[in-house]
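Fill in residues.
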């Protein structure tokens, strides 16, 4: 009986988030959407901020999109006093960010059901300073971030204790946290004379991610892990690589994958050029998004190169985004659709991809040729008799 009840419930949840075609929604001017999430009932939530063009004060926003595509916008309330809010991430019911009042940063959290009540993040005091800012959160309410003054990477539970992540007297930031509680980020290293990409495990382990690009100079290496898939399968960020054209070290978008994240992939464009930028979001089904010097991009583990987001949306779904996407700030895969928070102008795009990735253009051509060859072969077999002679 239990299985009979569970099966229709599963179908209901899948039906709630299934959609036959992509959805593009303009979220208005002077807004930046930094993160996106989608609940099992199909409702979409985006967070970000709206800038007052006269005062330049930032107001935190929670945008809700119902299954009938009705859009509602609520302000995330700041603590008392003149504040600018920087909203960084949303997963499940939890939202995180920080407020800036004067020179003081205060890490904050909210819930989707109560955006009017900011929840202070417990500070870690170092040399009398307790400023904090929060960068990532998972659906369980575990967050990651750093102390603003002393740059001590940290994690904790919304409404609970903040814990300093293990760094031997070195500065760092916890940029993102997975559903399993794994935190990724970066820390400085005097010994390595650089900035290292780091994974902090739930078992209190600390792992330095691979970065073969080492140079002489003030900083011998630079690597940041900025994002992690919910199931820990992929990490995204950037490493510093010397650009022979500009003759300087630039940020190159990268993915760490494989067992122990031992495989480093430097993303390229369709011409094989290094993609100068950073990976800002990764998914369980192998997609990565981010920003680059040529625009917002999307990539999949099965593709040989990253695609500019405007081109991908138009080529694969016939969606013409009215403005150039400068950055894809976040992506959330709900099991059926990829949901994106886009910057350039504030847009939300949801595209059904199912379990399989949408092929890159070269893959689509090969798929079309293969399909045509198959049907031509079938046609020949139907028009040839058992004795090998053509039939009527």
């Amino acid at each position: 009986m239990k299985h009979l009840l569970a099966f229709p419930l599963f179908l209901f949840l899948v039906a709630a988030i299934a959609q036959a075609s992509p959805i593009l929604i303009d979220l208005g001017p002077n807004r930046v959407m930094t993160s996106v999430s989608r609940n099992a009932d199909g409702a979409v939530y985006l967070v970000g901020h709206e800038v007052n063009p006269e005062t330049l004060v930032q107001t935190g926003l929670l945008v809700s999109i119902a299954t009938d595509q009705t859009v509602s916008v609520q302000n995330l309330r700041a603590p008392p006093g003149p504040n600018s809010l920087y909203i960084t991430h949303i997963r499940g019911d939890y939202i995180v960010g920080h407020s800036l009042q004067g020179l003081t940063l205060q890490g904050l959290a909210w819930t989707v059901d109560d955006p009017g009540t900011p929840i202070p993040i417990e500070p870690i005091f170092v040399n009398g300073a307790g400023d904090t800012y929060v960068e990532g959160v998972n659906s369980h309410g575990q967050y990651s971030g750093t102390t603003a003054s002393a740059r001590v990477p940290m994690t904790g539970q919304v409404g609970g204790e903040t814990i300093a992540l293990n760094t031997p007297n070195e500065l760092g930031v916890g940029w993102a946290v997975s559903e399993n509680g794994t935190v990724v980020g970066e820390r400085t290293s005097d010994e390595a004379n650089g900035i290292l990409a780091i994974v902090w495990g739930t078992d209190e382990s600390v792992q330095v991610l691979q970065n073969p690009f080492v140079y002489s100079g003030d900083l011998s290496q630079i690597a940041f892990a900025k994002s992690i898939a919910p199931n820990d399968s992929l990490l995204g960020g950037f490493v510093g690589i010397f650009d022979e054209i500009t003759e300087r070290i630039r940020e190159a978008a990268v993915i760490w994958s494989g067992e122990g994240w031992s495989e480093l992939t430097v993303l390229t464009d369709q011409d094989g050029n290094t993609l100068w930028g950073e990976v800002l979001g990764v998914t369980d089904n192998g997609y990565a998004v981010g920003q680059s010097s040529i625009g917002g991009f999307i990539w999949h583990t099965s593709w040989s190169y990253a695609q500019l987001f405007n081109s991908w949306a138009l080529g694969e779904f016939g969606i013409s985004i009215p403005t150039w996407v400068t950055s894809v700030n976040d992506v959330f895969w709900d099991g059926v659709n990829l949901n994106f928070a886009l910057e350039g102008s504030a847009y939300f795009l949801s595209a059904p991809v199912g379990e399989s990735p949408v092929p890159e253009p070269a893959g689509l051509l090969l798929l079309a040729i293969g399909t045509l060859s198959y049907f031509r072969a079938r046609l020949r077999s139907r028009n040839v008799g058992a004795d090998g002679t053509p039939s009527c």
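The chain has one domain: 2-382.
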